[in-house]
Amino acid sequence: MTATTLDVSPSPDEFAARSADTVETRYQHLDCRRRVRVGSAVSVVFEDRHTLWFRIQELNRIARRSPSDAVRRQLAWYQRLTPGDGRLVAAVWVAARGAHTHKIRAAVAAGRVVLRSDAGHEVIGRFLSEQAADRTLGMVRWVEFRFPAVAQAALHEPAVGWHLEIEADGLTLPATRLSEAVLQSLSADLG
Asked: Whose CA, among 44, 86, 89, 91, lies 20 to 30 Å from 108?
């Protein structure tokens, strides 16, 4: 079984073009348009068709060694991560190493992930409870943002800045301003 049966799978032409992608192109998409770093320890990647495609490629690499039920569960999970209809989903993970890694991960998982605009809009993320074993990213939690119509309209406004904040007991993480490229990408996801 291959993992490319998910709805985000590309057309044959798109498949050929994506297969020719270089690692540099992939990281450029992730780093420039999808990834937001919060402090030095936490990264947030907003999912879209491209990030899910990268995940499917990784899943294809392990699909032969995994039971087909596990692959199907993973694909069903990835399907749930697709953005749209006023909804964004992001992977949140802690990249810290050392003695305090477990404490940082636990604090982030018990905390809140919030998108705040300069215009006073606040969209609080909700951690998704079901988790698939994701071998491409390791310890990952996914958070879902549901945008009310007024906040969605503000995200489409180029003049309105947005910040990503992680509020966790015992941690001081700076708010991170979303770049114009990330905002444009997220705005396109919401339609």
From this structure: 86
Dig out the tokens for 157 from the structure: 């406004």
Alpha-carbon span 46 to 110, nearest angstrom: 20
- Entry pTM: 0.79
Residue 1 within any structural domain of the chain: no
The answer to whether residues 152 and 103 touch, using CB atoms and an 8 Å cutoff, is: no
Query: Is residue 3 included in any domain, yes or no?
Result: no
Is 130 within a domain? yes
Residue-wise pLDDT for 156-176, tens only, equals 999 999 999 999 888 878 899
CA distances, 51 to each of 57, 89, 149 (Å): 10, 11, 25
As a whole number of Å, the CA-based R_g of the chain is 17
Angle 149-156/180-190 helices, nearest 10 degrees? 130
Per-residue model confidence (pLDDT) at position 14: 53
Q: Which domain holds residue 74?
A: 12-190
Query: Could you give the CA distance from residue 94 to residue 161 in angstroms, rounded to a whole number?
Result: 25
